[in-house]
Amino acid sequence: MPHAAPTSHGGPRQRLLGPPPTGASEIFQVLRDGRPRTRAELAQITGLARSTVAARVDTLMALGLVSPTGGAVSTGGRPPSLFALNPAARVVVGADLGATHAIVILTDLAGTELGRERQDLSIADGPVAVLGWLISAVDRLLRGADRAPAELAAIGIGLPGPVEHDTGRPINPPIMPGWDRFDVPGLVQGSFDVPVLVDNDVNIMALGEQSANWPDTTDLMFIKVATGIGAGIISGGVLQRGAQGTAGDLGHVRVPRASDRLCRCGNTGCLEALAGGPALAAALNESAQVPLTGSRDVIELVRSGDATALQAIRQAGRDIGDVLATC
User: Fold this and answer.
1) CATH topology of domain 90-210
2) Residues 22-80: pLDDT tens digits?
3) What is the DSSP letter of 315?
4) In angstroms, what CA-CA distances link 176 with 11, 263, 269, 307?
5) What string of DSSP letters covers 64-119?
6) Which of 3, 23, 60, 164 sits at a 20 to 30 Å CA gap from 119?
7) What is the pTM of this model?
């Protein structure tokens, strides 16, 4: 049974104890595009019985997640009611914890940004320090948007390493010392009692790219080149995580041209040691007029038209292409 949760606006909002009834999530996903629909349209799209749709719509309305928006055009008799997502009913948090940065964004249910924070932060500082900053940032964003913690629906976190999806724990992450098998959701839920979903950052990027730009594409590979190098792979419309979340971990594939390069993972010959941001910065430091430390510095040098930097980027692209061609 739902119960009322107080909010910063003084009125109650309904929160559901336990998972929503079967079918409610399907209806919610359909309505996320913002288009109002009738019960009959929802039944046709989801394949649920009309009686089930009616009950689930009533549940979503009681929770404040869906609201009536008037009536559709009548073909005779009373016009059927239209229902649409209520984007202001809840807020969600998305966090990108990279190797050298952290970004946290607060949005409503339609994805409209309500606030963000960015911080230069090393993932090597460890989970307690990094997640402590994340928790503080979420609290500041909620207060800045005048939203109560009770209005927070969920938190999603992307990490720069393999993640065991069922538990949200990093598994032997090469560039994340101190994070192996750390209970990321458990620590965050100690401050916010909401679902905390954790995945490899490039997997999340692949899903976002597909949703925003390629919704009809069922086979897609998204490549991220930054401090590390990785791929998010969608095949048959399903994200492929692989054993222990290591699918698409391209950065630690051996390449002949890097046979003598020591990688941060402890091995030699990894693609990341040749074409990752820090590796490119180190290679360019001899010719650069100012010290380079990572991807951002390399990008700025390329944008300035530096011929050596452009050549290095092109060669990195060839090296990455060689690895992709063998996958």
Assistant:
1) Nucleotidyltransferase; domain 5 (3.30.420)
2) 578 899 989 988 899 999 999 999 999 999 999 999 999 999 999 998 655 545 445 67
3) H
4) 43, 13, 19, 33
5) TSEEEEEEPPPSSSSPPEEEEE-GGG-EEEEEEE-SSEEEEEEEETT--EEEEEEE
6) 164
7) 0.83
